[in-house]
Amino acid sequence: MADLFLDPKGFQGEINSFKSGADTIKGIAYSLDKQGIRLQSVDKYMECINEFNKTVQLFSQLLSQDTESMKLIKAKWMNLDSEMATKTLGEILFGSTVDTSASGETATDGGGGGFR
User: Fold this and answer.
1) What is the pLDDT of residues 17-27, one digit of tens each?
2) Residue pair 30/52 in contact by the 8 Å Cβ criterion
3) Measured between alpha carbons, how far is residue 96 from residues 49, 79, 88, 100 in Å?
4) pTM, full prediction
């Protein structure tokens, strides 16, 4: 079984680096000044440039989604980590049922956030 560890500060650095690279890519746009030249080859080149720019725009949208996904992964991981930190080892291993007395009565978490 593989160990998985998320260092929040290190992962935030990766998010920042990814976002910076994504922002650089989003700024890419090519253009062509035809200067009155009317040739089929220049027109075809212009079509290629326009298609490339559309592709970069679509790719930029995916990069934005990936950046948000990375942020969501970090937030969910931190929430889970925080939630795990508030549980005892017994609760983690055996669920939320705990023995609260010598008589063997049990208390369960009824979903209300506390034990009854």
Assistant:
1) 999 999 999 99
2) yes
3) 60, 18, 9, 12
4) 0.61
